[in-house]
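Title: Prediction job returns without error message
Component: structure pipeline
Severity: low
Priority: P3
Assignee: unassigned

Description:
Job completed but the reporter wants confirmation the result is attached to the right record. Sequence as submitted:
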Amino acid sequence: MRLLLLTLLLTSTVAFASKQDDLEKLRQRISSLQKDFEKANESKAEVADDLRESERAISDSNRSLEQLSQQQHAAKKDLAGLQQRATALRGDMREQQALLGRLLYRQYIEGGDRDHLKLLLNDVDANQLSRDLQYYQYIARSRADTMKSIRSSLDKLREVAAEVRTKSEEIAALQAEELNGLQKLERDKRARQQTLNKIAAQLKQQRREIGRLQRNETQLSQLVEKLAHMLPNIEGKPFKSLKGKLALPVNGKKANKFGVRRAENNLLWTGWFLRAPANQSVRAVAGGRVVYADWLRGFGNLLIIDHGQGYMSLYGNNETLYKQVGDSIRAGDIVSTVGNSGGNEDSGLYFELRFEGKPIDPSKWVRR
């Protein structure tokens, strides 16, 4: 039996290590693909690339701030628990001290300070003597136990007080780090706005140029196709079984229809642009794994989730990407926040569904 348990434990450990290795290899392959992809598409003529670093920095700063916020929340929860323990210990000590006071008073009024020899020499009934001795021994034991409990409570209280101080210092450090993060975020946002002001006219012209937009669409399609060829199959509920049941990733107003021509340049829409306020949470439409989380020309901060069996969902123009390559995702998880990265004039989310690299109509998949 022990041999079987040991074998199972070793097997599960090896399997876990193998999965971790596979995940790290996947991240490295996608990172390598991303670098090659950026190098192949690098162009000084693309003024929108000037936004890349500032919009990446804003996303990274916001993600760091969110992580700090979660750490602060956990630390404050721990601190509250420690303070409750300290309060309970102080309550126990008050009860123990009150009990000790009652025991000492009883010993005093009962003459418990008399020694046993005097009791034996007095002309007292033997049974009464036995009862008196047991009674005094009971008081003495209770007093000793109570004093021991008080000492133990004091030791625990000192330990808790030390933990409270440590946790308070941890929270103060996190708050200082958060303040630095907020200041960095403000600098990143100012840098982005300066870039936007500098290239506003060029961006407006680019949005009207069919050739440039076609290159953006082609780059996205190439990226999705390359990702699809390098990804392992994802186990779980088949994505196709969710047809007609998906929730919108954001509570926004649909600005276009799939497959119709864009008014400004006559190109076809391959997804939906959902107008929504900045910083609104974006939720994954289904479970899967993040296979891309970075800036892409024309789509800003872009997140792609692989749902298995050839299906992917794409979320573009985000301000913040909370998830990173390799992260496992459940339906409804917050993965990003709404923005207008990539040179968009309007705040909102660009949303696509793809099967085997080809765009598919979201209206057939999202529940009415």
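Comment from assignee: result matches the submitted record. The helical segments are 2-40, 52-109, 116-121, 126-208, 210-230.
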